[in-house]
# Entry
Amino acid sequence: MKITKKLKTLLPALVASAVLSLGFAQTAVASKWDAKMSPDEVEATLDKKFAEGQYSPKGADSCLMCHRKSEKVMDIFNGVHGSVDSSKSPMAGLQCEACHGPMGKHNRGGNEPMIAFGPDSTLAAEKQNSVCMSCHKDDKRMDWNGGHHDNADIACASCHSVHTAKDPVLSKNTEMEVCTSCHTKQKADMNKRSSHPMKWAQMVCSDCHNPHGTMSDSDLVKPSVNDTCYSCHAEKRGPKLWEHAPVTENCVTCHNPHGSVNEGMLKTRAPQLCQQCHASPHSGQPQFGNTEQGSTVGGNAFTGGRSCLNCHNQIHGSNHPSGKLFQR
Amino acid sequence: MKFKLNLVTLALLASAGAVAPSIAMADGYGIQNANTDKVKFEKWDCKRCAVETGYSGSIGVGVGYNDSDDIHSANAFAAEDEFAGKVDADLKYSGKSGYQASIEADNLGMENGSADINVGKAGQYNLNLNYRQIATYKTDSAMSPYQGVGSDDLTLPGDWVHAGSTQDMTNLNASLNPLELSLKRKRAGLGIEYQGESLWSTHINYMREDKTGLKQASGSFYNQSMMIAEPVDYTTDTLDAGVRFSGDNWFTALNYNGSMFKNAYSELSYDNAFSPTFGAQTTGYMSLDPDNEAHTVSLMGQYVAGKTIMNGRVHYGQMTQDQDFNTSGYGYQMPSESLDGKVETTGATLKVVSRINRQLRLNASYDYNDRDNQTNVQEWTQISIDSTTGQAAYNTPYDITTHKAKLGADYRLARGHKLEGGFDYRKDERSYQDRETTEESTVWAKYRISAFDKWDMWVKGSYGERDGSEYQASEWTSGESNDLLRKYNLADRKRTQVEARVTHSPIETLTIDFGARYALDDYSETEIGLTESKDISYDASVSYLLTEDMTLTAFYNRQNIDSEQAGSSNLSTPNWFGVVEDQVDVIGAGYSYNNLMEKKLRLGVDYTYSDSNSNTQVTQGITGDYGDYYAKVHNVNVYALYRATDKMDVRIDYKMEKYKDNDAGNDIAPDGIWNVLSFGSNSHDYNAHLIMLSMSYRL
# Structure
């Protein structure tokens, strides 16, 4: 779980800089029982307590006898998880103990473990998450188990907060910071010469990826790469009369959607990119660019301007009856 | 066949779920498994539950001054003009018995503004209205002699001097006007969600997006070309609706997604700036992206049987396009007036994850995806673009079928030691391609150690091999092509990837993170084409809570991507070679100081620098290079947030962007290439500043 500790140091700063307020997120502290018990002992105790079902005599009122002084605890009532009017809210059911497990003897000095969440909890992420997942079961989260973040032992509470009016990770600016705190390659990508407008959070990771997992590769929100791209680039969907097969097959054959040193998020610039697949007498000639013999890269139509696209403009396909060569 | 099989499997799963007894969610503390026999709910009054009703949140306004002489800075600042204004809001109303409403607005009024309004009753229904704008800017100084920019008819001035070469177009410089290449999306949506008392919920979302602006295009005649501005005026309507049912150990969802795309322009006509050559064409016509529709229905489900979770999805989609062909300047007979194009997509996925014991979990999945282009194959006469006469050609509707299978396991050797491994297989079958079938097998493993206090580290490696059916390089190419060519998306490939990451927290408040990646794509059987691509990168970051009020973060990344390719100038064995070397550096740092001036002031600064660089060399006896190609960007954001009163915050933001890029191939005058009439140099070199003062008021 330490991998997510980064978020613990990062989130408070983010929350404060992303929104126009002086709301300061509080950092969690390790639980009292962690000093006396090993993580295995904690887990065994929690398993036993959960099976025994020794819930408190008065529900939340029992818990709040001690915990009402904590602002963070009371913040649960600002959010949906503290709503007493919704039958789907934990507060309308087993209340605090819906998530934190049966009280048992915890009220006698707070030494007996309760189910704790977040980066400081020693409880296995899978166990923590089983609580959240038992209600949050829908088509956007059903692929959590065995998914990318599940395998990396990310706890729901590593990114999400419920003891708050508003979960900071659901804000666009915070989302980018949270995702890229682990996905550093993508963080670098979005700062390259060209990328989708993620650097300024006009687009965010979750526009294309579902962090809770999907049945598609890379947890894309649509069944395939192209379906995902078409959800914003519908003009490229066609079908057009003349298709450029690698375009139709997979946009990432030529583009890196996270960013590239080249314009247009191209993996390589024309003409090299085109010449990786085209080697006719017309397309297979070496294009030297600047040479000591006097030719310059900007001096001819093969390397200057838009290179191959100077003529083959309709590289994503053409619907003109005479568009086979993607010129019209 | 497999599609049907999975549909049946899914139906079985769904029906089994409806009658099966409630079985535990895999090992955990799920609410369904809670032992509530002893709970005396009648005494659970929740008297201390401090649920407040009424209004809460904050609303703010901001005004900014933007100092920039290049529209490109609007990508960073979301401001086009000298002055900018914005509204931010985060308002919430909580009523009695669960009624609630919220208004969120972010940068509304700026070019990246968004808003979200929700009204409903918690856990029952919600009505959502939303708005979002995305704008991207390329340049405002693309130079063009054309008139009618923004329309679908581009004409040259009456006194235009046609010539065989751009240098002889004597009126060119006098006719040039700058144009702005930028694209703006405006999205507005409406959604309704309803949750039944138990078991089911449904939603319907509608969104309209208008995308407008200009994008760069090229119109050509034989070997002469003009850069032109293509008008973009797209409207896309998206409808998304679904119904979900769930029980203790099962879940199913039926979804529909429809997308209707309309382009206000179907054709772009442009005057020939050159003296007419073949066919004596004085006007060119380009077909713009045609109107199209796509509809997809998907059914997905989950069934949890003890410690085994099974997920399935089937989907069926249709993409259609039937816009009338543009026949301006096309004098040949056509087999039909429009394409009547139709593509069917079919997919099925089945995934099983099973926890065998506390240590071991297994997973397996199979995925089938089919794109079947059912468009008729017909004969289309091609306009001659060179001295050969008009030739007939047949369209080649592209089909692809993909099968993917994955097997994996994760094993906890001990607390804090986890080993994962797996085998991925993929097979693609394509139509009208040099190679009908490719198959790829990949093995991978990952080992993670988090057992040591203050350390977390993992290493992952994978190796994959792709091969396939016989490669026939010239089978579908109309002209002659080199038989040794292996297109990189079809070629044999050996892919090796290694990645490692170490996170160290020497003290509670400090985290240091280091990662490195190596990836090699070796196209071992390729003689002509892409032969090798290597991607090496590493990064380091620090995040440090210096004091309770002071945070420091820093990030550095270096990446090198090198690719090698080979060609032949005489349709034979390789005799020229190309090397492309990309290098990227990204540096980021942030500092914030909180609770200054009696806990009323927060100061912060964020800085990012990125340097993207690419170098291309081509060798055949002599070696040529492609000159400078880089983008160097500095971004600074300094802010101060002051709590003026209990209710009021004042914030000042200063943003700076120093941007410089170059592209030697485009660093040219409009007449810099004899047969390309270009937009001129489109490099950027600017310093831009934005100062924004905002106030927010807390309810």
Q: What stands out?
A: Residues 5-18 of chain A form the longest helix (14 residues).
